[in-house]
Amino acid sequence: MAAPTYIKSLLRPNGSKPAGRKVWSVDLETVWIPFFTATNTEGLTAIPNDAIGAPLRLAYNPDGSVKFNERTGKPVIKVQSDIAEQVKLVRENFVATLQQYAGQIQTQQKDKYVEQVKLNREAGAPIIERDKQALDLAIEERILAQMEAQIAAETPESKGELAKA
C-alpha cells in the first residue's frame, strides 16, 4: 500500500515557524484563522465572523470583573470558544486519522509492522537501560546527600553546643 499524500505531507519539513499565539501548538494568526476562514468560505464550518475577527478575548470573572492571573498579575486572555471547539474537533479527527492509518498498516502489512516494532524495541533497549541506571544512581546520590545534610543538622557542632561547653 502506498502512503496517502496527506500522510507524506505530514512528514516533510516545510520550513515555516510562526511565532504567535498557539492553539494546540499551532499558530492562531497564521494557521487557524486562515484555515477557518477558508472552511467558512467553503461552507464546511459556520464559525461566527466575530469569532474569527477577534479570536482572542479578555477573560472575565463570574462577577463580571476582568480576570487576572494570580501568579503573574497579567490579564487572562483566552481563545474564543467557537474557535477553541473547532480546534478541538480538528485535533480529535487528526488523532483518529493517524490511528486509522496505523491500524491499516498493521493489518495490511502485519509481518513488516511486527518486524519494525521488534527493531524499534531492540534499538531502544540500551537507551532505556542507560537512563534507568543513571536515574538509579541519581536517586541514590540524592538520598545520601539528604541523609548527610540531616546528620549534619543534628550534630552538636551544627547547633553550636560545643561552643557553649
Describe this structure in words.
The protein is mainly α and 165 residues long. It has two domains: 15-108, no CATH class; 130-164. It contains seven helices and four strands, in the order H-E-E-H-H-E-E-H-H-H-H. The protein has helices spanning 5-10, 28-42, 49-53, 81-108, 110-154, 156-159, 161-164, and strands at residues 22-23, 26-27, 56-58, 77-79. Strand 1 (22-23) and strand 2 (26-27) form a beta hairpin. Helix 4 (81-108) packs across helix 5. It is flat, with a radius of gyration of 28 Å. The mean pLDDT is 91.
List keywords for this structure.
7 helices; two-stranded antiparallel ribbon; single chain; 65% helix; two-stranded antiparallel sheet; 2 domains; 165 residues; 6% strand; mainly alpha
Q: Which SSEs are present, and which pair or pack?
A:
Elements: H1 5-10, E1 22-23, E2 26-27, H2 28-42, H3 49-53, E3 56-58, E4 77-79, H4 81-108, H5 110-154, H6 156-159, H7 161-164
Antiparallel strand pairs: 1-2, 3-4
DSSP strand count: 4
Fraction of residues in β-strands: 5-15%
Secondary structure category:
mainly alpha
Query: Could you say how many structural domains there are in total?
Result: 2
Rounded to an integer, what's the Rg over CA atoms? 28 Å
Approximate shape:
flat
Total helical segments: 7
As residue ranges, the low-confidence spans are none
Name the strands of the widest sheet in spatial order. Answer: 1-2
Tell me the helix content.
55-70%
Could you give the distance between the termini? 86 Å
Pattern of helices and strands = HEEHHEEHHHH
